[in-house]
């Protein structure tokens, strides 16, 4: 993420771990946006049917809706920063979103296809680099971009 200059898209269903595991993540995001980088967060609706269904599957104390709310709480503190955008995935896309996380950093992406009955952090992660048009990088990023375009702004 340190080298990202133009486009940062964080489209995990919860994105909560970023705020907990990355030192001073809010300051990093703020600095990226202030330097002209487009910073976008796509999360699931904490009150949505897909979220409730996923909570039932995972059956963990740290629920999916709580993890989403961690992200929303932290994003609220950055609301005044131009260049930071946030959306909920559209209800009709939530099942597609919860099953695949795509974190784009310009020409690099971390992609996690979520295993059916596992918590996200127990699923495998792939590091993709954009090498040619229409390759694996573009296919995953285009999927995330479509979810972004169909998403609803977080007020």
Radius of gyration: 15 Å
Major beta sheet, strand line-up: 6-5-4-1-2-3-7
Number of strands: 7
Q: Into which percentage range does the β-strand content fall?
A: 15-25%
Structural class per helix/strand content? alpha/beta
Shape, per Cα inertia axes: globular
Number of helices: 6
Q: What's the rounded overall pLDDT mean?
A: 94
Query: Helix content range of the residues, please?
Result: 25-40%
Distance between the termini: 26 Å
Unreliable runs: none
Main sheet: strands, sense, barrel:
7 strands, mixed
Helix and strand succession?
A: EHHEHHEHEEEHE
Structural write-up:
By secondary structure, the protein is an alpha/beta fold. The chain is 38% helix and 22% strand. It has 6 helices and 7 strands, in the order βααβααβαβββαβ. The protein has helices spanning 16-21, 25-34, 49-58, 64-76, 94-98, 136-150; strands at residues 7-11, 38-43, 84-88, 100-105, 108-113, 126-129, 152-153. β4 (100-105) and β5 form a beta hairpin. The longest helix is centred in the C-terminal third of the chain and has 15 residues, at 136-150. The mean pLDDT is 94.
Task: Write out key terms for the chains shown.
155 residues, alpha/beta, seven-stranded mixed sheet, 22% strand, globular
């Amino acid at each position: 993420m340190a080298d990202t200059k133009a486009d940062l898209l964080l489209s995990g269903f919860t994105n909560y771990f970023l705020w907990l595991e990355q030192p001073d993540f809010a300051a990093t995001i703020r600095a990226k946006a202030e330097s002209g980088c487009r910073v976008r967060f796509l999360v699931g609706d904490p009150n949505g049917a897909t979220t409730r269904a996923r909570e039932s599957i995972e059956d963990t104390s740290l629920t999916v809706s709580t993890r989403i709310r961690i992200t929303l709480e932290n994003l609220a503190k950055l609301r005044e920063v131009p260049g930071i955008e946030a959306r909920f995935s559209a209800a009709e896309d939530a099942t597609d979103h919860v099953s695949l996380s795509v974190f784009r950093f310009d020409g690099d992406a971390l992609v996690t296809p979520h295993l059916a009955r596992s918590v996200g952090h127990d699923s495998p992660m792939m590091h993709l680099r954009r090498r040619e048009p229409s390759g694996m990088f573009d296919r995953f990023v285009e999927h995330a971009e479509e979810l972004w375009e169909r998403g609803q702004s977080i007020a």
